[in-house]
Design goal:
The chain is α+β, with helices and mostly antiparallel strands and 311 residues long. The chain has helices at 31-48, 238-243, 247-260, 264-284; strands spanning 14-20, 59-61, 64-69, 72-77, 84-88, 91-96, 107-108, 114-117, 125-130, 136-142, 150-155, 158-162, 169-173, 178-180, 186-188, 196-201, 204-209, 224-228, 231-235, 291-297, 301-305. It has an eight-stranded antiparallel β-sheet, with no helix packed on it.
């Protein structure tokens, strides 16, 4: 096996991933509805994807969308039948996007994610993002348990390779240029991990996603209850924090707290509004979005935090 090294390792990182979810997209709808579904797909990715960086919004071109970050130019095509072009340090690769299901034209969401809804199946989709560190992330959204669960990737003029441990996969060019793939991951709509791995098949690296997982839609997932900052309370992750930006969901969370701490019943209306305000601040915190810690003892309060649980 040839050694997998490259001076362009960071800037040409490609990260194919998968998200299993119930139907969020509908084909054959009006432009206004289609836009809503594009935004919903981008929000789903934001909810469940690991925090690997911020999405960079591109500019519309005659051929699609062009985005630039950290010296990398990604030309995201209007149609997924055309390769995704990634240029870094005057070195260009053409990544063939998965063709396991027919896709409609790509539409950019407000955060910069380009979404290609499937033409013949409700829920299936492909989404492409350029992140602020120059990494390119390709997501496949799997609409149901009977959807396709294997997706192939190839780069023109490159051969797929892996290291001796089977942990690092990528594409090797004739000039020694190595384009690594990020670690394979897949999550359902509740943010739960789904079994997945890469396999080399011919000139492709195929991501295989397990079929035994079912998508979950909890209003708010069960939080972790711990002592933190000299207070006892519920430690929300990123998915949970984003959900409680909705006042109805925040009120439901306050009701759940009141079951354990009856004194919260009286304060729920005000506390829920407080929760929404803090969740919105957590969403705008920089350089990293934060999460909420809901203090119930010694008294009602909310902290924003960021650690390994905040993902």
């Amino acid at each position: 096996m040839r050694e997998l090294t490259s001076v362009h390792r960071r800037r040409l990182l490609l990260a194919p991933v998968a998200i299993t979810t119930l139907a969020l997209l509908t084909t054959g709808v009006s432009p206004a509805v289609a836009t809503d579904h594009v935004e919903a797909t981008a929000e789903l990715i934001e909810d469940v994807a690991p925090d690997q960086g911020d999405v960079v919004a591109g500019v519309d071109t005659a051929a699609g969308v062009t985005a630039t970050a950290a010296g990398v130019i990604a030309e995201i095509p209007e149609y997924a039948t055309v390769p995704l072009l990634v240029d870094a340090d005057e070195h260009t690769v053409n990544l063939a996007l998965p063709d396991e299901f027919p896709l409609g034209a790509g539409r950019p969401a407000s955060d910069g994610t380009v979404v290609y809804p499937a033409r013949d199946r409700t829920g299936d989709a492909l989404a492409v993002q350029l992140l602020d560190d120059g990494s390119t992330r390709v997501q496949t959204i799997i609409g149901s348990s009977d959807s396709v669960h294997e997706f192939g990737y190839s780069i023109e003029g490159y051969v797929p390779v892996s290291d001796d441990t089977g942990e690092q996969f990528g594409f090797l060019g004739q000039d020694g240029q190595f384009v690594p793939l990020g670690e394979a991951w897949a999550r359902d709509a509740g943010g739960n991990a789904v079994a997945t791995n890469y396999e080399i098949r011919g000139n492709e690296i195929v991501q295989v996603i397990g079929r035994d997982a079912t998508a979950e839609y909890p209003v708010v997932a069960d939080p972790v209850w711990i002592w933190m900052y000299a207070g006892y309370g519920a430690k929300l992750n990123r998915y949970e924090t984003k959900k409680v930006r909705d006042y109805g969901i925040a009120l439901g969370m306050c009701g759940a707290l009141a079951k354990r701490f009856p004194n919260f019943v009286v304060a729920c209306t005000a506390y829920a509004a407080y929760m929404v305000a803090q969740a919105n601040l957590a969403e705008s915190d920089r350089p990293k979005k934060t999460c909420l810690f809901l203090v119930v003892a010694p008294g009602p309060f909310i902290f924003r935090y960021h650690d390994a649980h905040c993902k």
